Every structure is written in C-alpha cells, then in structure tokens.
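REQUEST
  id: r-88c1
  op: predict_structure
  target: Gustatory receptor
  payload:
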Amino acid sequence: MPPITDQQASVVALFVESVCYGIYLVTLGLSLRTLLWVKHGEGMKPWSQVNHLMLAVCLIMPITATINLALNVVRAVESVGPSGISEQFKDLGSDTEVTKFFCVNFQTLVADFMLTYRCWVIYNRSWLMAVVPSLLWFGVFSASTLNLVVLRQTHDESLTAAKALRPIITSFWATSIALNIFTTSLIVWRLYRAEKGLAVASLSRISDSSRGRRGRDSWVSKVMRIIIESGVLYTSVAISTCITYVTGSQGVYVTSAIEMQTVGIAFNMIIIRVALADSTGYTQKTTKDTIPLQIVARQHTTDLEISVTKNTHTDHDELESTLARKRSETMTESNV
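RESPONSE
  id: r-88c1
  status: 200
  body:
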C-alpha cells in the first residue's frame, strides 16, 4: 500500500477536526451556562458576579477554532479547482496557510497563558512561583512569532518538508509541552499540600459520626483530579503533534487538527467539572475554619474556602447534659 499523501491526510484531518469541533461546541455551551447562570436554573448571574476573564477566553477561543475549520473547508473546495491541491500544500506562505498557523499558535498561547495565570493565582499571586511558567510562555510566544515570519517567506515547500520551519515549530511544541507539564505539576502539588494540611488539622476533631465520610473524596482532591486529567488530555495531543511533525509524517495534519479543538475542550471541561464538583460536594451545618487558597476556577471570586468540620454538636449535647445534671443537684440541695 502506498504511503498516505498530504492531500489524503488533509481530507482525514478535515473530518476529524469537524467531529472535535462539534464536541467543542457542546462543551462551550455548558461552559457559558456555568459562567453566566446561577446554579439550579435560578436565572442569570449579576454581571458583577461573572468571572470576566474566563468569559472572555471562552468567547475568544471559538473564533479562532471556527476560522481554522473554515479555512480547511475552503482548501478542500479549492482542491477541485484548476490549480489542484498539490500546489496549495507547497505554498505555505499564502494568506490561507499563514492564517491557519496563526489560529493554531494563538489558541495555544491563550491556553498556556491561562494555565500560567492559574498557577500564579493558586499560589496567592506569588510572582516568584510564576517566573518559570512565564519564561516558558514567552518562549512559546517568541517561537510562534518567528514561525509566522519564516512561514511567510516559504512558498516552494510542503509543511512536512520545509527545513527552515522544522527547528522553529519543534521548539514551539517542545516549549509548550514543557510549560504544561511543569505548571500543571506546580498546581497539583499546591492542592496536594493544602489537602494534606487540612487532613492533619481536622484529624483530632472528627467525631465518630463523621468518620464514615472520610472515605469520600474532598473537593480539593476532585479539583486535583480534574486538573490532572485535563492536563493529560491536552499534553498527550500536543506530544502527538510534535512527534508526527518531527518525524515528517503526514499524520501531523490530523494531530494538529485535533490539537486545535482539544485546547478549547480541555479549557471548558475544567470550568464545567469544577462547577459540578462544587455543586455535588457535601456540606455540613457545623462550625468551620477556612484556609485561604487561590484558584481561578471558582465563580467570580478567586478565594477558595476549604471547610474543616469541627462537629461541635456532640460537645454541645454533652454540655447541655452536664448543665442539666448540675441544676438538678442544686435544686435537690436547696430542698434539703
């Protein structure tokens, strides 16, 4: 069987990207509902309670995702014209190809910026903890800018054969992957330490009636799992894109198409799943201490309050019993 050509790979990529785009639109709708509506269908949130940054990113990402898909459709339509699709693949400096590269780079930069922002916020806006992620982000930005400049001057080579672009695009993906792995690890480590600290602080104050609930996942552990799963989803696709490009495989058309839509899907899923974890989390009407922890995924405010149950109702019952016994003894002595 002859190897797959660029033309055939582009057709497969268009189909796969269309499927992923449909999934992305579903997650976009659910994400907007989470950001704009009060829980349990109680109407829209006041504008002051809406997380404006998250909303802006949610509205920007579908623009570039839609443009990229539309340009792929245009290229497929033009392939049946007089020029033929082969010439289109060799003209990487055309307006269509440059715009497509811009959409992919922009989508990646936005996602990496939001991940860096989450890391900065979750560490109580510590600039020290954001230094390395920020440097990596600027590395991705620099590679993206240089990529577009060189791409504009490339007119006689295909994507898989353009030697001038290979080190730039490889650096772009490698830096983005490093940023995602490093920053996600920082976020998970922060959440892990917070949960362990809460477990130690509350261990001596958990009553027998509440010990049965200790096996249940805490809200923080759920958020940890969500962050890890979303990070693995995006990073695995980015690694696949990098590998297929470095090896010169035509599969890069398919993996890059998936990556384009996966960025938005992973971002939306964090918002949706954190909101679901928050709404299904168990609460107790007892006295609680709160430990400040910063996290972006919360609605409007970035302060996360993690409850440490004291279960003061048991001590209260014992106190009432003691007071009643004392009053009875006092009345008996007075009668005597």
